[in-house]
Design brief:
With about 270 residues, this protein is of the alpha/beta class. It is built from nine helices and 14 strands. The strands form two sheets. Strands 6-5-4-3-2-1-14 form a seven-stranded mixed sheet. Strands 7-8-9-10-11-12-13 form a seven-stranded mixed sheet, with helices on one face. α5 links the parallel β10 and β11. α8 packs parallel to α9. The radius of gyration is 17 Å and the shape is globular. It binds zinc ion (2 copies).
Length: about 270
């Protein structure tokens, strides 16, 4: 009845938004797609905005905050972000609506309880005003959501070791980016420690922090131009195999689509 459910409404540079919830309440991580699309997609899985306890924002890039103002102001949802990210949101010209009320301030490392969910933000390296990943705990589940990070840190690694569900960036294939059409400065930005994670790095970090309770891995924020789902999955699997990691059919490794994905329900 109160199983954890996960819906990826958007993942990648066109917009990011993830829903985690149970039968009565839930939260959103990031809101980089139109508010009406969020509402429509949630409605299709039987979730109303009145059931959303908060929108948790990882950082102030437009693909993560586009609808934050609308969700906070028009739909009255509390928006949780660090103080610096809140400032960044209100400075952002691309966000459709400013956020005046409904601001909740997160402190990296400090846990917030909303309904049955506890959420802790942790700092990550990425070139926004400030960036965090999230640890989400619900019943027996420990979930890591780490999108947009130029490099991993000890906190991210330790969270992988504690999680049964991991949503982790696999942004680009090194060769596709290198040989692709992006200008030099953009390639430099993406590969830097404050840019994005490549498939190999994602695979390496997963291999190094692998443990038997890790059952669901979702590769997120795949680049449209420098990656594809098959390649991301294949690269991560190769890294795991090369590290001698064996896992059974009870382990799911799945790249997320850029648009709406299918609803997932996790076993307790
Ligand atoms: Zn992003
Ligand atoms: Zn970003």
């Amino acid at each position: 009845m109160d199983k954890l459910r996960f819906l990826s409404l958007g993942s990648g540079s066109s917009g990011n938004c993830y829903y985690f919830g149970n039968s009565v309440q839930g939260i959103l991580i990031d809101a980089g797609i139109a508010a009406r699309t969020v509402r429509k997609s949630l409605k299709e899985i039987g979730v109303d905005f009145s059931q959303i306890l908060g929108v948790f924002v990882s950082h102030d890039h437009i693909d993560h905050i586009k609808a934050v103002g609308a969700l906070g102001e028009r739909f009255n949802l509390p928006v949780y972000a660090t103080a610096k990210t809140h400032n960044g949101i209100n400075r952002c010209w691309g966000a459709a609506q400013k956020l005046n009320g409904n601001r909740r301030v997160l402190e990296p490392g400090e846990k917030v309880q909303v309904g049955d969910f506890s959420i802790s933000p942790y700092s990550v390296s990425h070139d926004a005003t400030e960036s965090v990943c999230f640890e989400l705990c619900y019943r027996s589940h420990h979930i890591l959501i780490a999108t947009d990070l130029g490099c991993t840190n000890e906190e991210v690694c330790s969270l992988i070791r504690q999680s049964d569900i991991v949503v982790l960036e696999a942004n680009y294939d090194e060769r596709m980016l290198k040989e692709g059409k992006y200008p030099y400065y953009l390639k430099q930005r993406i590969t830097s420690d404050t840019g994005h994670l490549c498939n190999t790095e994602t695979g390496r970090v997963l291999a190094e922090n692998w443990h038997p309770d890790l059952k669901y891995i979702y590769l997120c924020h795949l680049s449209k131009d420098n990656n594809n789902p098959e390649l991301a999955l294949q690269t991560v699997e190769t890294c795991l195999n090369e590290a001698g990691i064996t896992y059974g059919s009870d382990v799911t490794i799945e790249p997320l689509n850029r648009n709406l994905n299918e609803l997932v329900e996790f076993d307790d």
